[in-house]
Structure prediction request, 151 residues.
Amino acid sequence: MRRIEFRSRLFVILLSFALIPSAVLAFGWFATSRYAFSLVGASAAWDSTAASGARAISAMRSAPLTAAQRQVIDAHEQRLHESLLQSKRATFVFTRAVYAAAVLVLLSLAVVGLGASRVAGHLSRQLSRPLVELVGWTARIGRGEALPAGP
Prediction:
């Protein structure tokens, strides 16, 4: 079985130092946004408000009212319907926003991974060269050869 080179091991270590915390933070952000979107997009409260408002309005319509009072009730009913519609729209948008957040998390991880791999590759090359040179000197000493002339 062939051993992995020092440079490759160093590359994996450096890359994991960048990717593991980034992945934990990104998935934490996704989980938080998913939870927050489910709270904001809940339309059950508006559904019950619309139902109780409809019952109250129907009870008021059976009572003797003036024309001004009927206009106020009609305006209130219209606002209630508009609010319910906006609630349903928000629920639609926020359920889709979870998927957008997931795509954003994956794209951000891809960008961070690409950048981290480039930096890790550069650092592993720069950090492994002195060690490879030192191992070469040790091998030369073991064979009884002279060390190369230094700067």
